[in-house]
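User: Hi! I'm working on a homework problem where we have to compare a predicted structure to a textbook description. Could you give me the structure for the chain below?
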Amino acid sequence: MESASRPYPGTVVEFNGWFPDDAACLDYLAWLRWGDEGFGCHLCDAVGHGWLRGDGKSWDCGSCGSRTSAIAGTIFHRTRTPLTVWFRAAWELTTRANGVSARGVQRTLGLGSYQTAWTMLHRYRRAMLMPDRTRLCGVVEVDDMFVGGRNKPGMAGRSTRPHKTPVLVMAEVRARSIGRCRAVVVPRFDTASLRSALRDNIELGSLVRTDGLVVMAQSLDGFVHERKSVQGSGPPAHLLFPAVSRVQAQIKRWLDGTLQGAAEPEHLQEYLNEFQFRFNRRRARKPGLLFYRLLTQAVLTAPAGYADIVAGCRRDRDKPPQPPVGPRGLPQTLAQPDAGRPWRLLPR
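Assistant: Happy to help. Predicted structure tokens:
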């Protein structure tokens, strides 16, 4: 079978067959984390010297006697949400053309709490930022943009800066297309912030194209700088900088369309992580490949609880979030037994 030659399901039908219950999901995560060699102890580094306990969830190390789980130290660490729910959320997040919102995941998976869906997606977004990713290279277009906030009457352009979040957008230029992109939230558009963002995301010596922003030119030491002034050249920005202008437009459409513009400044970088993850893999032919890449990174990403994710968020809200009415329980697993064809019991 074709599915035997790849480590991920290719269709939603295969997805349902691969992960019918939580045990199958846990085994898949164990395989992603430890490979075919089997259990690997995080304390003594012993490989293949362990056995699965009777609960089917944890392993005992045969060398040092420690006990661990395949999800310990990952984004699934100490989760009370069934893994079938986690996997379905990852599938929806990576296979839909524009992704999903937390509200959509809550409705689709029948979660009683919006907070559960929101936290789950943000943990995945943290895993989408790969620390060992290669920097952009070649010819790179760079431009600034502002995201969020509301314009006050009579304010336009850079005068809206106090109400918006500054973002530096970078895009590789290819012969007939756009290469990879980066979108980084910066504290402000000053020399120190721009220089740090550029060096973290672009290889030194690359050709960087920018507009006439003076502070940008002052931040490009170590790069070959090509400056084109939009006001002085005549053609509009989308003709002078077609790659980065298209990426900026797609970021704005995605934030407004999928997230309804609800990307708060404190979490904007995590939303941009998702955009980069999807954009840089937009040519993937198999939808399950993005699912596989995400879970591979998820077992390598440190855990983060709800308190960690919301740390530093604004508290001056007009209406603080209210807990749901009625009793609250844990999310139900998506593993279901055979229903026995109930439609055969209906009168005709």
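For your comparison, note the following. The beta strands are 50-52, 58-61, 67-69, 139-147, 165-173, 178-185, 207-210, 224-227. The CA atoms of residues 194 and 219 lie 6 Å apart. Good luck with the assignment!
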